[in-house]
């Protein structure tokens, strides 16, 4: 192909063709996901249950803290309202960054041979899975939007700080990057299935670490030193904690810009890592016997 | 130019050898033992454009491995191959747009959606121009008689209908080379026949180069003039189906319907009686003596009907494989046979 001179027409036609392919994957995946809307509906409802327990738990914790005077008690800088707002926001972050079935799906495709399709047809596995996941999320949001809106409206009193102006843009950017990071991170884990036929225990460890260090369980800035510093160096916080912190105005100015840049860097890192893992994996797969 | 050229192609796998028992399992963890499997042993083969070739062989003989090599799913241990001038395992998109692989046991269609949607996706994957796409799709659905089914979710289709949809999906981009791995596996006789007819018609029209592996000899007999028999990773026969039958068929089957019931006397002296269903008798006789024996029978009895046939193909192939197993080497089919049809 290197002998073909660059031609802007061929190039733009190719780009256009690619976009049409992505559009088609998206459209068809949306249709497919809609088949499972009932399952989604139930899943969304279940998501709100833990938050109620969290509210009771933290209410009890705050009440037990000595020197309690109304709503102004703070635990490591968090008021009760901040805490509830944090959990609600984390739920939203995770609606972007969690990738149910991605890693295990990839491993299954490898084990059962469905991966062959991507060796035979002129389409990339990651490319396909990405748009499939986007479709999955879009269908999910369209169904979950109503319950989410109701819950956030009911809990509006807990939000003592809401973003304004540029903070909104930063928040949306951090959510989108949380999605990208979640996708490439879990795809990489799934692609390890080329070496280990079963990644479920690996995935379990990842989920466990993620639960603690993404900020899903509690805000990570509550951690004492040196754990806080360590946790800040690994990418998991960008899946849940960071977007919520942006929304709550806990990171601002230069720190916010740096945070977004580091998040972007992690996205690129895992994107490259996923690609490399796929390449090496396919090489191994085709050497081994398909 | 030939469509497919294979030269000394080999594929060797290493699989870990698991022994029985707990102690052996523990030892296996510490010092794994491997077993080398020669799936394909230095095969060479040329297929011209527009040929319809069958790969025959027992399970594990290397047929599917060869197809996997030719479609670029696996890389060989040694040797070379080109398909349409491309090295398959480089997996260039320019090659991937020109061939298709259909595996009878693998499902490529979206289970919960109508086949029409999977076809749309294939249109985009293979960048098929819209008018060509519509034309090809309508032509193929017409030929297979499934036009009315393309808007029904795939999961609601029968196995045969699904296979037809799989074929259509694979042919939408008009591949120049088509690999079919057991395309009629598990199908009922009617569906098998429809697919056979379709493949024959399609191939005659488009002059596609086709390699087919199948366990159904009917598929092979109906479709392929050239047969490549693979056994234990080697090609042990390459030539026409008819000369394979001639060579293997050391016996002929004589069926006689006698005019007035089964005659008295021992028919066993003419040959081996394999069916006694008065007034019909089936005899297995040595091929060279068949005419002689028919004459002798007719001289002694009055017959309503006499036919002389080759034994069923399945039986022949089974004989071929069992004797190959016994001799274990390629010496089974004498070498002159290799070039019988060239």
UniProtKB/TrEMBL annotation, chain A:
It holds the Pfam family ABC2_membrane_6. Keywords: Membrane, Transmembrane, Transmembrane helix. InterPro entries: ABC-2_transporter-like. It comes from the Bacteria. The chain crosses the membrane at residues 45-65, 85-106, 141-159, 171-197, 203-220, 227-248, 260-278. PANTHER family: SLR1174 PROTEIN (PTHR36832:SF1), SLR1174 PROTEIN-RELATED (PTHR36832). This is ABC transporter permease. It comes from Thermogutta terrifontis.
């Amino acid at each position: 192909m290197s002998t073909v001179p660059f031609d802007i027409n061929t190039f733009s036609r190719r780009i256009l063709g690619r976009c049409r392919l992505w559009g088609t994957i998206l459209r068809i995946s949306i249709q497919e996901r809609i088949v499972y809307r009932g399952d989604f509906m139930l899943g969304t409802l279940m998501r709100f249950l833990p938050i109620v327990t969290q509210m009771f738990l933290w209410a009890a914790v705050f009440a037990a803290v000595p020197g309690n005077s109304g709503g102004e008690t703070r635990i490591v800088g968090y008021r009760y309202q901040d805490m509830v707002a944090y959990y609600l926001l984390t739920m939203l972050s995770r609606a972007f960054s969690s990738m149910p079935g991605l890693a295990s799906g990839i491993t299954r495709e490898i084990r059962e041979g469905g991966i062959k399709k991507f060796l035979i047809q002129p389409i990339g596995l990651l490319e396909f899975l990405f748009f499939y996941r986007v479709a999955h999320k879009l269908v999910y949001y369209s169904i979950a939007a109503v319950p989410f809106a109701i819950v956030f409206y009911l809990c509006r009193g807990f939000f003592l700080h809401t973003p304004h102006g540029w903070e909104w843009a930063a928040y949306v950017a951090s959510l989108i990057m949380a999605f990208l990071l979640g996708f490439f991170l879990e795809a990489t884990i799934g692609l390890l299935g080329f070496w280990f036929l079963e990644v479920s225990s690996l995935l379990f460890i990842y989920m466990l670490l993620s639960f603690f260090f993404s900020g899903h369980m509690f805000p990570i800035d509550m951690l004492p030193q040196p754990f806080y510093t360590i946790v800040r160096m690994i990418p998991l916080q960008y899946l849940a904690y960071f977007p919520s912190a942006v929304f709550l105005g806990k990171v601002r100015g230069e720190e916010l810009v740096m945070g977004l840049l580091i998040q972007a860097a992690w996205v690129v890192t895992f994107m490259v890592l996923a690609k490399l893992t796929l390449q090496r994996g396919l090489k191994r797969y085709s050497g081994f016997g398909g | 130019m030939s469509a497919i050229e294979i030269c000394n192609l080999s594929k060797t796998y290493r699989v870990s050898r698991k022994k029985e028992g707990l102690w052996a399992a523990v030892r296996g963890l510490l010092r794994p033992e491997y077993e080398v499997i020669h799936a394909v042993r230095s095969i060479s083969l040329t297929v011209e454009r527009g040929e319809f070739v069958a790969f025959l062989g027992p399970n594990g003989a290397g047929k599917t491995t060869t197809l996997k090599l030719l479609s670029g799913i696996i890389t060989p241990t040694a040797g070379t191959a080109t398909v349409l001038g491309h090295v398959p395992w480089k997996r260039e998109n320019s090659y991937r747009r020109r061939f298709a692989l259909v595996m009878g046991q693998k499902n490529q269609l979206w289970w919960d959606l109508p086949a029409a949607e999977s076809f749309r996706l294939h249109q985009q994957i293979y960048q098929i121009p819209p008018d060509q796409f519509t034309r090809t799709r309508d032509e193929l659905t017409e030929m297979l008689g499934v036009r009315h089914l393309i808007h029904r979710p795939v999961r609601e289709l029968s196995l045969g209908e699904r296979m037809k949809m799989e074929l259509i999906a694979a042919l939408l981009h008009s591949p120049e080379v088509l690999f079919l791995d057991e395309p009629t596996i598990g199908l009922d006789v009617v569906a098998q026949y429809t697919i056979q007819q379709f493949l024959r018609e399609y191939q005659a029209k488009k002059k596609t180069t086709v390699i087919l592996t199948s366990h159904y000899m009917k598929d092979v007999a109906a479709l392929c003039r050239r047969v490549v028999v693979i056994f234990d990773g080697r090609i042990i026969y390459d030539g026409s189906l008819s000369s394979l039958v001639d060579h293997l068929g050391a016996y002929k089957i004589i069926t006689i319907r006698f005019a007035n019931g089964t005659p008295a006397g021992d028919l066993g002296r003419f040959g081996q009686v394999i069916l006694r269903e008065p007034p019909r008798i089936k005899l297995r006789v040595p091929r060279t003596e068949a005419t002689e024996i028919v004459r002798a029978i007719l001289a002694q009895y009055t017959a309503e009907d006499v036919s002389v046939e080759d034994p069923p193909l399945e039986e022949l192939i089974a004989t071929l494989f069992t004797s190959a197993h016994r001799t274990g080497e390629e010496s089974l089919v004498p070498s002159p046979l290799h070039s019988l049809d060239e």
